[in-house]
Amino acid sequence: MSGAGAPKTGNIDGRGLEVVVIAGTWHEVISNGLIAGAQRVLAEAGATHRLVRVPGSFELAVAAQAAFAGGADAVVALGVIIRGGTPHFEYVSAAATDGLTRVSLDAGKPVGFGLLTLDDEKQGLDRAGLEGSKEDKGAEAADAALRTALVIRGLRG
């Protein structure tokens, strides 16, 4: 399990930041855990935020693009892709990752990357921030989005 060496989180002043959490609807228990972690971090930081649901991970990038066009300072993208017996996993994982990277670079704004690419459901449950989970990737993605938005704000003066 990764997580060793993770940066310290917490103590962020996100007041004045508009953040959109965009989450896929596949694997509801894991997705809902990711959402709860992200929303908790955003609320604790004082950032204004809202949740938008999309059908799956493939749709995260276009929704993120629309959020930035609507004035968002940051996006937290949350999705769950579990490996199956076909190449579909590789195609969707690569397309979602590449799409989110492109949207972030095109907008010059951060996308907190909370897209879980997993071999099985257990790995997702271990990372979803649920009771008994070892990690909270939704919280980590929100923390990264906030911290990067603040860095960008500082660089732009």
- Ranges where pLDDT stays below 50 over 5 or more residues in a row are none
Number of helices: 5
Strand content: 15-25%
E-strand count: 4
What does the main sheet amount to?
4 strands, parallel
User: What is the terminal separation in angstroms?
Assistant: 39 Å
Structural class: alpha/beta
Helix and strand arrangement:
Blueprint: E1 18-24, H1 28-45, E2 48-54, H2 60-69, E3 74-82, H3 88-107, E4 111-118, H4 121-127, H5 137-156
Parallel strand pairs: 1-2, 1-3, 3-4
Characterization of this structure:
This protein is 48% helix and 20% strand. By secondary structure, it is α/β, with parallel strands linked by helices. The radius of gyration is 15 Å and the shape is globular. The mean pLDDT is 94.
Concise account of the structure shown:
This protein has about 160 residues and is of the alpha/beta class. Helix content is about 50%, strand content about 20%.
